[in-house]
Specification:
The protein is an alpha+beta fold. The protein has one domain. A hairpin with a 3-residue loop joins strand 1 and strand 2. The termini are far apart. The mean pLDDT is 91.
């Protein structure tokens, strides 16, 4: 893929018209948020077993 492709405009249903680099950045940012949630969900299963 050439660098010119990253400036092409694409349509996102919620964001509207964005460049490909903006869309990739949005998806990356969104996925980092989900990745941060994983240890929180895992830790919750041990909450009841932890003493005072």
């Amino acid at each position: 893929m050439s660098t010119e492709n990253f400036s092409k405009r694409v349509m996102h249903l919620e964001l509207g018209v964005v460049t490909l680099v903006e869309l990739i950045s949005f998806i990356d940012y969104h996925n980092v948020g989900h990745t941060a949630q994983i240890p929180i969900v895992i830790a919750k299963q041990y909450r009841e077993n932890i003493g005072p």
